[in-house]
Amino acid sequence: MRYSAYSIIKQALSGNRLWQPAWREPEPKPHYDVIIVGGGGHGLSTAYYLAKEFGITNVAVLEKGYIGSGNVGRNTTIIRSNYLLEGNNPFYELSLQLWEGLEQDFNYNAMVSQRGVMNLFHSDGQRDAYARRGNGMRMHGVDAELLDREQVRRMMPYLNFDHARFPILGGLYQPRGGTVRHDAVAWGYARGANQRGVDVIQHCEVTGIRRENGRVVGVETNRGFIGCGKLALAAAGNTTTVGRMADLDLPIETHVLQAFVSEGLKPAIDNVITYGAGHFYISQSDKGGLVFGAELDFYSSYAQRGNLQTVEHTLEEGVTMIPGLSRAKVLRAWGGVMDMSMDGSPIIDRTPIDNLYLNCGWCYGGFKATPASGFCFAHLLAKDEPHHVARFLRLDRFERGYMIDESGKGPQPNLH
Ligand SMILES: Cc1cc2nc3c(=O)[nH]c(=O)nc-3n(C[C@H](O)[C@H](O)[C@H](O)COP(=O)(O)OP(=O)(O)OC[C@H]3O[C@@H](n4cnc5c(N)ncnc54)[C@H](O)[C@@H]3O)c2cc1C
């Protein structure tokens, strides 16, 4: 079924009785050409592009919970491509370009909203760093504008410009950045993959990886053994536990990140804003809630919830940046588990084990990567060679010393 204005009118006239489920609920088959572990954004987009771009349709996505129960449905919905380094910039820019055409491509309203992303700076040194980043972006053909204090004030008069310790001196602005409705992305990719023959299997937990003569031949699950040609791991915060099933020791730590939403307010914040003196970021959803978050909880955990100390810290940062926030009520908070790589950049690569492929290391920024991650991982699975924009995102870079140190803080996960 194709979604369109015509289909909405037709359904309305028939009392909305003819809508069909967006995807099937298939039983697992005994064998697939490709099995993808993890029905998050990355697993589902990989399946979608495998079928659509490479014609590989004998594919299953195995999800231990329900579609959207992981980070794809828990993030703060921000998309951008304001990266500095060669290893990241073309990759994230491909992702932004795919976001720009995604709704037409998979025929689903994902509410892609290019409302602009502003990174505030608070010192001369930080302005220099942002100027360098902006120049790097422009040299890669990516949009970036360095704004002074008065230009930012005209756009966002409610910010605290004269804070004694962290005055706002200006911002690096990417007009094409913005937000996307996160769960609609999961649903849109699941529906698109399903339409092309992919089996999206919910409540199917992978509990073991079977190998014969060193090659992966399938997975043990709570619904029995399922054989496969290639096995693709896209388990995000659970990467280390799934990797351990194949004795893979990965350069990943799992940490909690929380997010918050306020009561619905009249439109007030038009863009996405990030606070350069901390890690606070905020936008306003179309329903009116202020959606925001800040730092990790700073301890390893697989629990999808965090602690009160981080709640307090996040709200302090928010009120420092926007004093009026102190009058809004927080409605809900939640947490997700982040696959933190040691240099802050992702991995899309083969593993040393035959037939086993890896997609992980998304830290707190993998939502924006969803389309390019799926596209490049599908390319790798189909052709057995990396897509050129993902050629630096290799697993062995940690061994070889070729870190992609995007945040300028070295290969130390506690600093990025
Ligand atoms: C609070 C928060 C805010 C964030 N904000 C942003 C943001 O604004 N912008 C941005 O770009 N990124 C953001 N992120 C990061 C982003 O959400 C993640 O990097 C990205 O979603 C991870 O990829 P995914 O969607 O595939 O993960 P997930 O949705 O977590 O998918 C992984 C799936 O694997 C499944 N799984 C795990 N183990 C197994 C198993 N053994 N068997 C079967 N299935 C299994 C899980 O159930 C899960 O559904 C945020 C994350 C959080 C938590």
From TrEMBL:
<keyword id="KW-0963">Cytoplasm</keyword>
<dbReference type="GO" id="GO:0008115">
    <property type="term" value="F:sarcosine oxidase activity"/>
</dbReference>
<dbReference type="InterPro" id="IPR001763">
    <property type="entry name" value="Rhodanese-like_dom"/>
</dbReference>
<keyword id="KW-0560">Oxidoreductase</keyword>
<feature type="domain" description="Rhodanese">
    <location>
        <begin position="34"/>
        <end position="78"/>
    </location>
</feature>
<comment type="similarity">
    <text>Belongs to the SoxB family.</text>
</comment>
<dbReference type="InterPro" id="IPR006076">
    <property type="entry name" value="FAD-dep_OxRdtase"/>
</dbReference>
<dbReference type="GO" id="GO:0046653">
    <property type="term" value="P:tetrahydrofolate metabolic process"/>
</dbReference>
<dbReference type="GO" id="GO:0005737">
    <property type="term" value="C:cytoplasm"/>
</dbReference>
<keyword id="KW-0285">Flavoprotein</keyword>
<dbReference type="InterPro" id="IPR006278">
    <property type="entry name" value="SoxB"/>
</dbReference>
<dbReference type="InterPro" id="IPR036188">
    <property type="entry name" value="FAD/NAD-bd_sf"/>
</dbReference>
<dbReference type="Pfam" id="PF01266">
    <property type="entry name" value="DAO"/>
</dbReference>
<keyword id="KW-0274">FAD</keyword>
<protein>
    <recommendedName>
        <fullName>Sarcosine oxidase subunit beta</fullName>
        <ecNumber>1.5.3.24</ecNumber>
    </recommendedName>
</protein>
<keyword id="KW-0547">Nucleotide-binding</keyword>
<keyword id="KW-0288">FMN</keyword>
<dbReference type="GO" id="GO:0000166">
    <property type="term" value="F:nucleotide binding"/>
</dbReference>
